Amino acid sequence: MTQVFDQPPEGIQKAPHEPRMLAAGYQVALREVGFSDVHDKESLMMAMLRGLALTDNFGHNWDALYDVLTDPEARQAKLGLLLRDFEYFCQRHPQLSAELERVMLDAQRDAAKHGRQLWLLSEELESDPGNW
User: Fold this and answer.
1) Where are the alpha helices (DSSP H) in the chain?
2) What is the CATH number of the domain that holds 98?
3) Domain containing residue 67
């Protein structure tokens, strides 16, 4: 059975079952970014700051996020972003999520050009969206 980490990253993919254990087995550094509390660009940037373990000097803008995701000195050659509650975030904030997707996919393409890998893995919370 082919696993997500057997193939080069391609777009935003559904997270596999037990993504943390699987990533560890493939020596992929996995960072988790939660979107359940994101309601605007500032809270999105704060979620990225926490999830990527960035310092407070992170620029809180699209260019800064792109730079962080593509910086070979700050990121491992094999990096996975576990995007928790991402689909629901996209439904709630289509314009903001479209901008974020553009940045992440550009970073993914840039990583591939430089022999690096950036997986973007969408993982939904187990709760019923009707209760949010």
Assistant:
1) 19-25, 41-51, 62-70, 86-92, 94-113
2) 3.30.370.10
3) 25-125
Among 62, 87, 88, 78, which residue's Cα sits nearest to residue 114? Answer: 78
> Is-contact 32 52, C-beta < 8 A?
no
HEC string for 50-78: HHCCCCCCCCCCHHHHHHHHHCCCCCCCE
Interval 4-63: pLDDT, tens: 999 999 999 999 999 999 999 999 999 999 999 999 999 999 999 999 998 878 899 999
Q: Domains in the chain: how many in total?
A: 1
Residue 22: helix, strand or coil by DSSP?
Answer: helix
CB-CB contact of 20 with 28 (8 Å): no
pLDDT score recorded for residue 71:
86
pTM of the model: 0.90
Q: Record the tokens describing residue 19, joined without a space.
A: 């993504």
Backbone angles phi, psi at 116, to 5 degrees: -115, 165
Contact 19, 3 (CB under 8 A): no
